[in-house]
Amino acid sequence: MYIRRYSGESLCSDCFKKSIVEKTRRTIFRYSMMPHGSRVGVAVSGGKDSLSLLSVLNQINRDSRWELIALSVDEGVEGYREEAILNARKLSKELGIPHTVVSYQDLFGFTLDRALNWKEEREESSCSLCGVFRRRAIDEAAARAGVNIVATAHNLDDYVQTFLMNLLHGDVGRLGWLHPSYTDESFPIRRVKPFLEIYEEEVALYAYLSGIPFQSVSCPYMHEGLRSEVREFLNEMEAKHAGMKNVLFRSSLEVVSQLGSPAKGRAIPCRSCGKPSSGGLCGVCRMKALVEQHINYADNSS
Length: 302
Description:
Helix content is 49%, strand content 11%. It has eleven helices and nine strands. It has helices at residues 13-30, 48-60, 81-95, 104-108, 112-115, 126-145, 156-169, 200-209, 226-240, 244-259, 283-301; strands at residues 2-4, 9-11, 39-43, 67-74, 99-103, 149-151, 190-192, 268-269, 276-277. The strands form three sheets. Strands 5-4-3-6-7 form a five-stranded parallel beta sheet. Helix 1 crosses helix 2.
């Protein structure tokens, strides 16, 4: 029996799993995330969250409302990513969903392990640096699969963490991007978050009750940066005050709704890769050049 402390519900395992599917369904239709007939790429890292998302969307899609394609990115983290890609491939096959995989090595010419091998010399956290490349890699996987929407497994915890991090960094202008209905015409592939209204711990419980595999190891870079501290703070607050994350989520939605969409500058093609950018060189190409500079330095010094 699972007790939702923030709502007072008591649910058996079957009712709990059904509630997760139904909450996801409601979120999708509340924010018009995935119109009928969409070709949807599901970003499947191979962890419990993304595998759960693929499973839930497959259940909602019994009437073939959408065409689902699993998208995975192999960042190149030795001893970690191999198991995840195997899990993603296995579940995709079981569900009969096509699976597209791209890698940092093929796209950028280096693995994440290689790209991060200058920790003492950089200001960016590992997660920040990886995030820049991962977003581009998912876009590339989506383009290869021919999808027009990408669904990611970001949950309620991820959302409120990002909201607070933007405030702590002073990035108030970016808050408008957090609205669930926000779209940017500069980027033809829309990103949506069907787990937006579900706690991270409930996604984990769904995975456990559904027999979805948990990775045996965690990403070795996951505890760098501000997000881990914000996550710990929010978990502590939720433990003391049940429903605090839910209240913060609703409050953040109200704030971003009041702010409206952020001002959109004219996107221009990156002079290196041709992708949309706000300046002459996009963030991916800037970061790639920086990484390559340090890789070449290390190679020439050895």
